[in-house]
Amino acid sequence: MDAKTGFFYLFSVVLLFAAFRVITARNPVHAVLYLILAFSQAAAVWLLLKAEFLAIALVLVYLGAVMVLFLFVVMMLDIHIDTVRKGFWKHFPLAATVGAVVALEMAAVLMGGFRGMDEPKPVMAVVDAAGQVVQYSNAKALGKLLYTEYLFPVEIAAVILLVAMISAIALTLRQRKDSKAINPSAQVRVRAGDRLSVLKVAATQKAVAEMPVQPVVEEKKA
C-alpha cells in the first residue's frame, strides 16, 4: 500500500466517523463542528483525486460561509434539547426504516454500478500545436469552460445570487418601530433648547413655616 492509498483510507475513516457523529451528537454546536470536519475530509479526498477546484470550492463555500452561518444560527437559537428528545423514540422506527432503505440503495449502486469499469487516469500534461508539452490544470480548464461555453448561465446565476444578497440586506435593514437605533446626523444638529425646557408649575401645597431653633445652653458645674 502506497502513501496515497494510506491517506485515502485515513481521510475516509475520519470522514465516516465525523458523519456518524453529526447525527448522533447531542449538542447541536458539536454536530455542526463535526460536519465541518466531514467537509474538510471530503475536500482532502477530492485533492487525492486531483479535483483541486472542487476541493477549494468546498473549503471556501461550505467551510468558509455556509458552516459559519450554520454555527451562528445554532448558537443564537434557543434550542431546548429536552423538548426535542421527547419524540425521539416515537419516530425512531420510521427513521430507522428510511435510513436502512437509503443505505441499501447506496450499497446497491456502489457494488453493482461500477463493475467492469477501469479507474480513470487523469491527464497530467497535454501537447500543444507546436509539439511542446504543456502542464495540464483542472482549474484552468474548468475556468475556460465556464467563461466561454457556459458564460450565459454563469452570468444568470451571478445575477440571481446578487438579487438574493440585496434582498437579504434589505430585509435585515428595514426600519422597525421597536428599534432603538440612533441617527448620528440628528445628534450633531441637536440644540440645548430642544433637550431641556423649564416650565413654571404652580405650588399645590402651602409652604410649612419653619420652627425657630432654640439655642442649647450647657450648665457649668460649680
Secondary structure blueprint with pairings:
Elements: H1 3-24, H2 28-48, H3 52-76, H4 81-85, H5 88-112, E1 125-127, E2 133-135, H6 138-146, H7 151-172, H8 184-188, H9 192-195
Antiparallel strand pairs: 1-2
Helix pairs in contact: 1-2, 2-3
What would your notes on this structure say?
With 222 residues, the chain is mainly α. Among the domains are: 1-79, Four Helix Bundle (Hemerythrin (Met), subunit A) (Up-down Bundle), CATH 1.20.120.1200; 81-113; 133-173. Helices cover 62% and strands 3% of the residues. It is built from nine helices and two strands, in the order αααααββαααα. Strands 1-2 form a two-stranded antiparallel sheet. Strand 1 and strand 2 (133-135) form a beta hairpin. Helix 1 (3-24) runs antiparallel to helix 2 and helix 2 runs antiparallel to helix 3. The chain is elongated and about 115 Å long.
At a glance:
This protein has nine helices and two strands; from the N terminus they run αααααββαααα. By secondary structure, the protein is mainly α. Among the domains are: 1-79, Four Helix Bundle (Hemerythrin (Met), subunit A), CATH 1.20.120.1200; 81-113; 133-173.
